[in-house]
Amino acid sequence: MKADIISTCDPVDWEELPHTKKLALMIKGAEDPIFFWTHPALGNYKPWPSQEKIIKNFYTKEGEKRKYSELIFVSGMRGGKTTIAAMISLYEVFKLLCLDDPALYYNLGPGSEIQCINVAPSEPQALDTVFKRSKELVAHSPFFMSKRHELVYNAIKFPEKNVTIKALGSNSGSGVGRTVKCFIADEVSSFIDNTNHRSAQEVYNRLSKSTATFKPWNENIRVAISSPLYEGDFITTLNHRAKEEKWEWALTYWEPTWNLNPNLNKEVLEEERRKDPVSFDRDFGAAPGTEIENLFSPDLMKRIVKESEINGNVFDDIDNIQPKNDAQYYIIGTDPAVKNDTFGLSIAYVTTEGRIVVEGATRFKAERGHEIDSEEVKKYLIPMFERLPVRYYVFDAYLHGHLKDLAKTYGIETFQHYLNLEDWMKTRDALDKQDATLPNVDFLLDELKYLQLIRGKQVDHPKKFPNGETGTKDTADAVAQIISLVRRTEDLSKSKYSQVPSIFVETF
To answer: Which residue in 462, 479, 315 sits closest to 395, CA to CA?
Structure first.
């Protein structure tokens, strides 16, 4: 988004304009979305040519009525779809603010709140994508800044007209109001429902129903945007259905990034293509991936292995473990097990510069039919608890209760967290950018090497590795727990929301 030009020219102070001029601009703006966005007294924004084309087409009229009420937009990364979604959402808000009484105009109950909802797979994503872009556009718009508005954690409220823009995670059902004029489904193929299972269709249907009370139908706005995960995911299916069944109310686009973004660096694109052609085609070319592919590309694994070769494994000499000079704090991640499985354990620290250094990884195996020996695990945990400034202890679904209690006796915060696709994407991204480094542990690197991305939304291991060993990802899970916790707490601090992420359940 850095390449976008927000301010088109010197903004015009809305309050200094004569009343008649304001009325003329509002009337013209309500008829022409591009006029609204480009005028220095209104939106004060210069869209890309592709963004202008899509917005103009979406607001095409047939007679006095809008032709389209639904936009289905498939594109690659950095294709400007987030900005398009924010522009549509805010344009609908603009038209509402032009009315004396929006609730009365649309035959709603007196004092009814009208909402424009921005929904993403998770709440942190919702805050960091369309909603963030909406805040930026509001801040650079003389019209919006002239209107009294309240910025709260996940909402922009215009109380004089009782109009609200709200950001929600797709598993949040309670925040959707009864009078939704517009909803944006961002990265809709990755939606999850409130049972934590991915269910884009159910969530999208629920959001669509929330607009049903808002009349007339052609005033209800639905926008589905997403990069494709795999052929047959929600966004590709929705796009195909709209075309095949000739949905007259739906405008569809399916474009690679380079057809949309005029500021793309061709050299950067070629480098991305060289590193991982499959991921490049999916992420930038908007080409759906295959049902099963490697989560970590061969090129990335080569770089991860090369970087790890300069590191050891602290678990090789646990009795002499000492904190590093540049360590802010330490984190322990585990993927526990009870029987017939592997107990993965990893330790990392965050440097004063914010890098994540995974110092060690190990695993514990139980004999068939027997439980993991938790006393053996304690032999590794106690030296770390006693000698290192451990701040967090994060684990998956199960943890031996006395190990959790042991951590708490040392004043360490414990969190239970279920890894999801977003966590793995953050882990891969951190390793790709070398914001995180790994120890030279063969079984950990093998687990990462063979991790599978299934249908673009689930990460798992094969039943068997190529060498015939039983497939597993327990130590990889422990590492991902650490990296995702650090990244999520960083995202939270950036959003100026100071409490523990809701996805982490503190255990007492």
So the answer is: 479
Q: Which domains does the chain have, with CATH numbers?
A: 14-279 (3.40.50.300), 298-506 (3.30.420.240)
Looking at residue 495, its pLDDT comes to: 43
In 3D space, the residue among 320, 316, 343 whose CA is nearest the CA of residue 332 turns out to be 343
**In sequence order, what are the residues at sequence separation of 6 or more whose Cβ sits closer than 8 angstroms to the Cβ of residue 107?**
215
Ranges of residues in the chain whose predicted pLDDT is under 50:
1-7, 194-198, 495-508
pTM for the model stands at 0.66
User: For residue 139, what pLDDT is reported?
Assistant: 94
240-264 in b/e form (b: 16+ CB < 10 A) is eebeeeebeebbbbbbbbeebbeee
For 347, half-sphere exposure in the C-beta direction (CA atoms, 13 angstrom radius) is 28
Q: Which of 315, 504, 508 is nearest to 394 (CA)?
A: 504
What single string gives the DSSP state of each residue in 71-119? EEEEE-TTSSHHHHHHHHHHHHHHHHHTSS-HHHHTTPPTTPPEEEEEE
Quote the CA–CA distance of 12 and 17 in Å, as a whole number.
8
Q: Helix/strand/coil (H, E, C) string of 33-49?
A: HHHHHHCCCCCCCCCCH
DSSP state of 339: B
Q: Are 167 and 184 in contact (CB under 8 A)?
A: no
pLDDT at 442: 93
* C-alpha distance from residue 163 to each of 49, 88, 89, 92, 251 (Å): 30, 15, 12, 10, 26
Please, which residues bridge with residue 347 across strands? 332, 360
Please state, in angstroms and rounded to a whole number, the distance separating the CA atoms of residues 127 and 132. Answer: 6
Asked if 287 and 281 count as a contact pair (C-beta separation under 8 A), the reply is: yes
C-alpha gyration radius of the chain: 25
- Both structure tokens of 403: 């190990």
Question: Please, are residues 138 and 156 in contact by the beta-carbon 8 Å criterion?
Answer: yes
Nearest CA to 501 out of 423, 395, 491 is that of: 491
Q: How high is the pLDDT of residue 398?
A: 63
Buried b (16+ CB within 10 A) or exposed e, 443-477: bbbbbbbbbbbebbbebebeeebeeeeebbbbbbb
How much is the pLDDT for 339?
Answer: 54
What does the pLDDT read at residue 233? 84
pLDDT digits (tens, 9 = 90+) for 321-360: 999 999 999 999 998 765 557 889 999 999 999 999 999 9
pLDDT at residue 298, rounded to an integer: 85
- Residue 155: strand pairing partners: 152, 166
Spatial contact of 204 and 160, defined as CB atoms under 8 Å apart: no
Pick the closest to residue 199 from 207, 187, 210, 190 (CA basis).
190
